């Protein structure tokens, strides 16, 4: 009789533990961000993002919302797969999770049988919750541009750029009512923040993540020879503003070119090469229009240098509107020439001229 009573107590204690703490977020620097782990039969394990056939994925924002609700961590900001917070160890408890979003706990969602599966951890899922407060983008002169900050443990913290990607950026932009993501960067382009760094435990503020959202309208490149070259402008507060060149680099330029369907980034400059704009300057608070950022995209085809002695010398031509056009010499400087040479695999730039030295196009 005593042995039966002991077994009953053990089962009751296990049931109590599993009901009291059945899900957690780990390796995210905050109890409200990280890799999703669930407690089952005395052991913590991860959740796979794939369906039963491994041919599709089922982890989504509805499932993330259930996890955030269960943990008391506010709203879901992002649902990610592919081990963004590192791969787990040990077992994978379940996969093929199909939440409706109205469940109060992840266990209530239909899924593959919970067990101690010895599956790959390559699709371990992760979640970022708001932490009780809406996220914010700071130091970008607009609520739709800036360093990503989340509220955790009664203070604001930043997001590690190594954890930030375009999928997560898109989720945050939509959550803030800021349209879609234009760019996601991880090198503290909007300055280093304070407080904890949410993401990877070994990540410092030098890798603080930043986001540029479309603001409800796609970005545009103006005052160039085509829609794929010009001064970067973003829509904010019912007006168009420029992007500070100090916040612009080739990674952000690449994202904008892809977003606009303009191929690859050839150059990113920050000295108002395409003229000074009007309206607010988005980026660093102390940045003026003299540093307005500009981009040259490939336009869908690589640039070419023509009428020179080799493919690495000549008149710069870009493909636009189903035809080849030239680049105005007033917009060409050594920085842009350097970018084009690197893009073409032609080493370093030796000269940049603007007086039709290689003939008129």
TrEMBL record:
Disulfide bonds: 68-129, 99-109
PROSITE patterns referenced in this protein's UniProt entry, alphabetically: SRCR_2
Localisation: Secreted
One Pfam family this sequence matches: SRCR
GO molecular function, one term: serine-type endopeptidase activity
Main location as per UniProt: secreted
GO CC annotation, single: plasma membrane
InterPro entries (alphabetical): SRCR, SRCR-like_dom_sf
Signal peptide: 1-19
Alphabetical keyword list: Disulfide bond, Glycoprotein, Repeat, Secreted, Signal
SMART domains, alphabetized: SR
GO biological process assignments: zymogen activation
Gene3D superfamilies in the record: SRCR-like domain
UniProt domain SRCR: residue ranges: 23-130, 135-258, 303-361
PANTHER family: SRCR DOMAIN-CONTAINING PROTEIN
Protein known as: Deleted in malignant brain tumors 1 protein-like protein
């Amino acid at each position: 009789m005593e042995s039966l009573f002991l077994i009953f107590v053990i089962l009751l204690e296990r049931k109590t533990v599993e009901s009291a703490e059945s899900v957690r977020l780990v390796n995210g620097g905050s109890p409200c961000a990280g890799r999703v782990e669930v407690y089952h039969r005395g052991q913590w394990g991860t959740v796979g993002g794939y369906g039963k056939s491994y041919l599709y994925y089922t982890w989504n924002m509805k499932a993330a919302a259930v996890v955030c609700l269960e943990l008391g961590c506010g709203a879901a900001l992002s649902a990610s797969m592919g081990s963004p917070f590192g791969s787990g160890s040990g077992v994978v408890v379940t996969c093929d999770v199909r939440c409706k979003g109205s469940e109060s706990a992840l266990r209530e969602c239909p899924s593959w049988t919970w067990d101690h599966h010895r599956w790959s951890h390559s699709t371990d899922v992760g979640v970022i919750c708001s932490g009780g407060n809406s996220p914010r983008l700071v130091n970008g002169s607009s609520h739709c541009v800036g360093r990503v900050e989340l509220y955790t443990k009664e203070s604001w913290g930043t997001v590690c750029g190594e954890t930030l990607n375009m999928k997560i950026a898109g989720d945050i932009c939509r959550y803030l009512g800021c349209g879609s993501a234009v760019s996601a960067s991880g090198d503290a382009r909007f300055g280093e923040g304070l407080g904890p760094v949410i993401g990877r435990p070994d990540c410092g503020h030098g890798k603080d993540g930043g986001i540029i959202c479309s603001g409800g309208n796609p970005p545009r490149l103006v005052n160039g020879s085509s829609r794929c070259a010009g001064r970067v402008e973003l829509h904010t507060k019912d007006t168009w503003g420029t992007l500070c060149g100090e916040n612009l680099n080739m990674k952000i330029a690449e994202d904008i070119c892809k977003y606009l369907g303009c191929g690859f980034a050839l150059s990113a400059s920050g000295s108002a090469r395409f003229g000074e704009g009007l309206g607010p300057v988005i980026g660093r608070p102390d940045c003026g229009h003299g540093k307005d950022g500009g981009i040259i995209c490939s336009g869908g085809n690589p640039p070419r240098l023509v009428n020179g002695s080799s493919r690495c010398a000549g008149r710069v031509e870009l493909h636009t509107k189903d035809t080849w056009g030239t680049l105005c010499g007033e917009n060409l400087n050594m920085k842009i020439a350097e970018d084009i040479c690197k893009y073409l695999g032609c080493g370093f730039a030796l000269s940049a001229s603007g007086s039709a030295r290689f003939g008129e196009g």
